[in-house]
Fold Erythrocyte membrane protein 1.
Amino acid sequence: GGTKDEDAKNMFDRIGKKVLDKVKEEAQTYKDDLKGNLASSSILGELAAFSDPCNLIKNEGEKLLALRDNPCGNGSGKGEDVSRFSKERVDEYDEKKIKDNKSKGGNNEGECAPYRRLSLCNKNFPNMNSNDSSKAKNDLLVDVCLAAKYEGESITLNYPKYEAIYEGSGHTPCTMLARSFADIG
């Protein structure tokens, strides 16, 4: 008696809300420090007139590619195509990783996630000036926009191959793109 919570769950919910509210409030202080601005990117030059990343990639993608190169390439400079997706890297979740994860047949094979990248679209990242955070965050926005463009194209191109191997998997290109970018985090 005498507590303001009905049970332990309510107590943890109340404490969790306080923590979340405090973190959100503190995050507001630094939010703009992480926000990139295309118009301030050192990569773009005359293309900096675009403030919308989607319009920049759609309308000026080829010019930008000439300035920055394909972020999903292999970095060798020899122009070879990189096999970025492979069934060898399909994530299988077995009983050791997820309890009670049985396949449709009831055995312990587990479910599979869609193709995973063998390499990230981060070839251009080492070229960023990490000593100047203002410059780096703006250039990073450009590189992330390029990576998203090429990642989407790569998934679209490889999706029929994946679907042929794992027919009826239920993994849509949107799911693949979401998981692909989740790999970065």
